């Protein structure tokens, strides 16, 4: 029953141009709540601040201002509290080619988080969990002995999803999880994430630039523009009745076969 709450989140970067220093505000007063069993899409163009929010939520960077709360409590900076947070909040990265170490096999990638977050498991338990995780992402357990270069892009991303599930998280952050994959396999990976979200009762933050998939796979949509949330609400409401001009521009840029080619023949 995990809940992630963001309050007044701000992230500034210092940029140097010779002797002059300037400030870039990448995230500006962002707030939202992600509850278990819900999928929230964070939508915006490249450079809008979406991935910066992901890094802040993962504690890879510290916010300039604001706070992140897990189950109503501020995130600890160190110690057992931070370890617990990192177990409960997991990430599926955009690039499955870069997020897996080419020198290690699939079993290693899954065993490492299991041993880190579940040290009580025996070697036999870890092996059983690895088989179960691969089956959960619809991969043959025999793939445990393969290295990343022996897998397709879609298979690598499924391994990355299995790795994120290994610590038994409550929150999953998926940062453009299919943008690096062939178009023909994107839907299968998104359907897998939707199935896992329902069956594991996960809270999922789906970061994307694609309003069409955001509407299809999300309960709520947050539209981000220049570091700020400019519109939010239920997915259908945001898509069908956009209030902000930027949301309307995103909707107009979404491919619509009927608008381009006319209705499909019956």
UniProtKB/TrEMBL annotation:
<dbReference type="GO" id="GO:0055085">
    <property type="term" value="P:transmembrane transport"/>
</dbReference>
<keyword id="KW-0813">Transport</keyword>
<dbReference type="GO" id="GO:0005524">
    <property type="term" value="F:ATP binding"/>
</dbReference>
<dbReference type="InterPro" id="IPR027417">
    <property type="entry name" value="P-loop_NTPase"/>
</dbReference>
<dbReference type="InterPro" id="IPR003439">
    <property type="entry name" value="ABC_transporter-like_ATP-bd"/>
</dbReference>
<dbReference type="InterPro" id="IPR017871">
    <property type="entry name" value="ABC_transporter-like_CS"/>
</dbReference>
<feature type="domain" description="ABC transporter">
    <location>
        <begin position="4"/>
        <end position="251"/>
    </location>
</feature>
<keyword id="KW-0067">ATP-binding</keyword>
<dbReference type="InterPro" id="IPR003593">
    <property type="entry name" value="AAA+_ATPase"/>
</dbReference>
<protein>
    <submittedName>
        <fullName>Peptide/nickel transport system ATP-binding protein</fullName>
    </submittedName>
</protein>
<dbReference type="GO" id="GO:0016887">
    <property type="term" value="F:ATP hydrolysis activity"/>
</dbReference>
<dbReference type="Pfam" id="PF00005">
    <property type="entry name" value="ABC_tran"/>
</dbReference>
<dbReference type="InterPro" id="IPR050319">
    <property type="entry name" value="ABC_transp_ATP-bind"/>
</dbReference>
<keyword id="KW-0547">Nucleotide-binding</keyword>
């Amino acid at each position: 029953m995990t809940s992630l709450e963001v309050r007044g989140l701000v992230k500034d970067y210092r940029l140097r141009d010779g002797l002059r220093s300037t400030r870039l505000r990448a995230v500006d007063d962002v707030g939202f709540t992600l509850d278990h069993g819900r999928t929230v899409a964070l939508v915006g163009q490249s450079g809008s601040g979406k991935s910066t929010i992901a890094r802040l939520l993962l504690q890879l960077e510290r916010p300039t201002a604001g706070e992140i709360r897990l189950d109503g409590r501020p995130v600890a900076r160190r110690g057992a509290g931070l370890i617990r947070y990192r177990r409960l909040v997991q990430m599926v990265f955009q690039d499955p080619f870069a997020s897996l170490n080419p020198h290690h096999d699939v079993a290693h990638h899954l065993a490492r988080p299991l041993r880190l977050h579940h040290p009580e498991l025996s070697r036999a338990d870890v092996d059983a969990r690895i088989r179960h995780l691969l089956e959960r992402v619809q991969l043959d357990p025999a793939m445990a002995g393969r290295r990343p270069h022996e897998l397709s892009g879609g298979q690598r991303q499924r391994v990355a999803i299995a790795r994120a599930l290994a610590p038994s998280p409550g929150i999953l952050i998926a940062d453009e999880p299919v943008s690096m994959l062939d178009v023909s396999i994107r839907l299968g990976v998104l359907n897998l994430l939707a199935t896992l979200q329902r069956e594991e009762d996960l809270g999922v933050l789906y970061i994307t630039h694609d309003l069409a998939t955001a509407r299809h796979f999300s309960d709520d949509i947050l539209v981000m523009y220049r570091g700020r949330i400019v519109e939010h609400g239920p997915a259908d409401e945001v898509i069908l009745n956009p209030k902000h001009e930027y949301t309307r521009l995103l909707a107009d840029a979404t491919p619509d076969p009927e608008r381009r080619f006319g209705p499909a023949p019956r």
